[in-house]
Design a protein that fits this description.
The complex is a heterodimer of chains A (631) and B (203). With 631 residues, chain A is an alpha/beta fold. Helix content of chain A is 35%, strand content 16%. Chain A is built from 21 helices and 22 strands. Chain B contains eight helices and seven strands. Chain B is globular. Chain B starts with a strand and ends with a strand. The chains are: A alpha/beta (631), B alpha/beta (203). The interface between A and B is large, with 65 and 59 residues.
């Protein structure tokens, strides 16, 4: 054993490797991405790893490998589980032979996701056991336990960390590589009665699953990570208690001391719920506060426990308004809720706008910065919404379409990726964004109602492969009239530059034949497919004008590499003598490298950010900017 | 008791790398460490932070409001943004160089540097505030790339990092920084607190 400073996601990857995982597949998505990347970095020879084209493909690859008796891991974020849900729901009935862990990272807040869905709820819906870690160290250990449980039960097991566990770092004690488990899978054994899903099989499987989960719930009451503790020691007889889970359990711990007399239940297996343990926990209590993020899963389970067993304890939490119903918990939001629940001192309330704590909590260590009644308000701070990087080719693509279509009735459907940031002013080029690949058929749908709208769907290269292609087939075959714009920067940029089928390299390090976006589109039947460098501004605008007026589904592929990867070395500079301070570049492009001087109004270029993309050079009315060079 | 430090800045300024360096320095002292940070979309020019908790007694990777012992900011407005996390009598070590966002030029709130600096002086107090003159440090190093490390060094010298010393940071640089950047980071750590580059009375 040795100690390492690991991110939660790294710890889970190492935990899977220690448990002898052989096949790992996933699709990138914050906050889950680093798990698979760490596996790729640290894997031994017998481990296969891939970034799949999407989560459904990843889950199916892993299912096949698990049918053949090997240990497999699938990684995704919570919305990825929606994509993978079709195979997962059926796989729950079919089961696996080798251990299979489905790692789904939830994102309370949400911080970088479309939804605040709770995979604990999904696990109950799919009737699959789910483990909910509180810390990176625990997440590391849970991976091995999840593989054991999966193999024993013959079904996938979900491990569900949340963002603060995924991206929190901790010094973790990990096993040395020579102690990692080595598996010798049996291989796939042909047996249609086991591997081919039919209603007759599902009738049997469903009954077996219900029986299994009822028995498992009893067993999990003895699982060491489902635990009951008391702040005032084992002999105290508290009347109040907290039920919690995951990262919230650490926030609860931050806010309790031995001076409080409470019992704490921590649930690591929200499904199947360990009801026997919960009933013991409830014994002798008056009230329980459930401190949860996302859905009130434990709260509902405790209410059900009380009802079923005739236990007279009041269960409070999200459903009673004692815990915020949505959003991320914090150390202080939990502290405030505990202060109220336990009747401790005065809550440390936040001043309007949440900018400065006002009153002082009596609880130890919870003084706020100011003891003044009305501390001075802070000055207005600049707002920093995330923006496209300086030199990002997406800026040029959006600007070309905007300029080409000025004065026309248009619709700009966006999609998931860095280019969602094209919504920001001054570009303001994203009218819709729903989920991966959705923009294409949303554009089609709007044109059925508004045939006179020039509809555009912007999709990134990775998103195109993930779930854009079927949308193009649908739009083309059903005679839609729209322009597909593929923003091809030859990487999956938003999540940290993962390879995809258009990049020509795999996660195993092979250099392979790229899948050509042009050839895919032509094979579908599109006749107008034009590829252009968006940083060649005039040509880009001219191409958009021409292509948009063609009938049917037509495509423009804006191809220029992500500047974070390509690292262009040239820089543009402004000739202050020629700059008249019109700030057209700033107003039209919103590039973070363009900095207007507060007094003269003239523009300066921040050399630390500029990539010399030349877009501002091409639109400056006085030709005051020069020095860049297009890649 | 744990020492709790918040590193704050703008995406791209190296808050994540600085928090790793600080964590390794603390681990070099044999302390348990927990950290939490911003990853994902917010990194693209947004406000970013890292929470670093060193020593026994930390449960959560996040520091609660009013409980941070120090804020180390790579950008002055971001120091103000994190100020509600500072405990009474806590320290702030900040760069004096503003990063003006696009929004300030396209209709968003203007960047009022004098107001931000005077608010920091008033709320934190002269004795607990260290302002690093970024331009001078950049001139000395020939690049702005190591400002995150300059700030860590200044914070260690000011006693803002609890038990972690400049020597601990030097060891962490040797142990964890890519060879090509070791010399730069070591030079950044050596920028002295009593030199003209660092003072609490600038602006």
């Amino acid at each position: 054993m040795h100690r390492e400073f690991l991110m939660g996601n790294e710890a889970m990857a190492v935990g899977a490797l220690v448990a002898g995982v052989n096949v790992v597949a996933g699709y990138p998505g914050t906050p889950s991405t680093e798990v698979l990347e760490t596996v790729a970095k640290r894997r031994g020879e017998g481990v296969y790893v891939e970034w799949s084209v999407n989560e459904k493909a990843a889950l199916e690859v892993a299912a096949g490998a698990a049918y053949a008796g090997t240990r497999t891991l699938v990684t995704m974020k919570q919305v990825g589980l929606n994509v993978a849900s079709d195979p997962l729901m059926s796989l729950s009935y079919i089961g696996v032979k080798g251990g299979m862990v489905v790692l789904v990272a939830d994102d309370p807040g949400p911080i970088s996701s479309q939804t605040e869905q709770d995979t604990r709820t999904f696990a109950a819906y799919a009737k699959l056991p789910v483990l909910d870690p509180s810390t990176p160290s625990e997440a590391y250990a849970m991976m091995g336990e999840a593989f054991e449980l999966s193999e024993e039960l013959g079904c996938p097991v979900i491990v569900r960390p949340t963002t603060r566990v995924d991206h929190g770092y901790e010094d973790v004690e990990v096993a040395d590589p020579e102690d990692w488990r080595v598996n010798e899978p049996e291989g796939f054994v042909r047996d249609p009665s086991r591997w081919v899903i039919f209603p007759a099989l599902s009738v049997r499987a469903h009954a077996a699953i219900e029986k299994r989960d009822a028995e498992l719930a009893k067993r999990l009451s003895g699982y060491a990570r489902n635990d009951v503790t008391q702040t005032a020691g084992p002999d105290a007889r508290p009347r109040l208690a907290i039920a919690t889970h995951g990262i919230s359990a650490t926030y609860v711990a931050e806010n309790l001391s031995e001076k409080d007399d409470v019992r704490v239940l921590r649930i690591a297996t929200p499904y199947p719920f360990p009801e026997d343990l919960a009933a013991e926990f409830l014994d002798g209590l008056d009230e329980v506060l459930c401190v949860e993020e996302l859905d009130p899963v434990i709260e509902r389970a405790l209410i059900a426990t009380c009802g079923r067993r005739g236990i007279n304890v009041r269960i409070r939490g999200k459903l009673t308004g004692d815990i915020q119903p949505s959003g991320e918990n914090t150390v202080e939001s939990v502290g405030t809720a505990l202060d109220r629940f336990l009747g401790r001192g005065e809550a440390c309330e936040l001043a309007p706008g949440g900018s400065s704590p006002r009153a002082v909590s009596q609880a130890e260590g919870r003084e706020c910065l100011s003891t003044e009644k009305n501390p001075p308000a802070p000055p207005t701070l600049p707002i920093r919404p995330p923006v496209l990087c300086a030199g990002c080719p997406h800026r040029a693509s959006f600007y070309a379409v905007k300029k080409a279509m000025r004065g026309r009735k248009t619709l700009f459907c966006g999609d998931i990726g860095c280019y969602t940031l094209g919504n920001a002013k001054p570009l303001d080029m994203v009218d819709t964004c729903l989920c991966m690949g959705a923009g294409i058929n949303i554009a089609q749908g709007v044109t059925h109602v508004e045939p006179d709208t020039a509809a555009f769907a912007f999709v990134g290269d990775s998103t195109f492969f993930a779930s854009g292609i079927t949308g193009v087939v649908n739009a083309f075959y059903n005679q839609a009239n729209m322009t597909l714009v593929v923003l091809d920067n030859s990487t999956t940029a938003m999540t940290g530059h993962q390879p995809h089928p258009g990049t020509g390299r795999t996660m195993m390090g092979q250099v392979v034949e790229k899948v050509s976006i042009e050839r895919v589109l032509r094979a579908i039947g599109l006749t107008v497919v034009e590829t252009v460098d968006p940083l060649d501004h005039e040509l880009a605008v001219e191409t958009v004008r021409r292509v948009a007026d063609e009938p049917g589904v037509k495509a423009i592929i804006f191809r220029s590499p992500c500047v974070v990867l390509a690292k262009p070395q040239t820089r543009s500079t402004v000739d202050a003598k020629k700059c008249v301070g019109c700030q057209r570049c700033v107003r039209e492009l919103g590039c973070p490298a363009l900095v207007p001087d507060a007094t003269t109004g003239k523009v300066r270029i921040d050399a630390a950010q500029c990539t010399g993309c030349t877009l501002c050079e091409q639109i400056c009315p006085t030709n005051a900017i020069s020095g860049g060079e297009r890649l | 008791m744990s020492t709790n430090v918040i590193l704050a800045g703008v995406g791209g300024q190296g808050a994540v790398l600085a928090s790793k360096l600080l964590a390794r320095a603390a681990m070099g002292r044999g302390l348990p460490v927990k950290t939490a940070e911003t990853i994902g979309m917010a990194q693209r020019g947004g406000s970013v932070f890292s929470h670093v908790r060193m020593g026994e007694g930390a449960h959560s990777p996040l520091v609660g409001r009013g409980r941070a012992d120090a804020i180390v900011a790579f950008e002055p407005a971001e120091a103000v943004r994190q100020l509600p996390f500072l405990r009474p009598d806590g320290m702030v070590v900040t760069s004096d160089a503003p990063v003006v966002p696009v929004s300030a030029a396209t209709g968003g709130p203007a960047y009022d540097l004098p107001a931000i600096m005077s608010y920091l002086r008033e709320r934190v107090g002269e004795k607990n505030l260290v302002v690093v003159e970024a331009a001078a440090a950049t001139d000395a190093l020939g690049t702005a790339r190591a400002m995150n490390v300059v700030l860590l060094g200044a914070a260690a010298r000011a006693g803002a990092l609890g038990p972690v010393t400049v020597d601990d940071l030097v060891s962490a640089v040797h142990a964890s920084v890519k060879p090509a950047f070791v010399d730069l980071d070591l030079a950044a750590l050596m920028i002295q607190g009593d030199s003209p580059f660092v003072s609490s009375k600038s602006q």
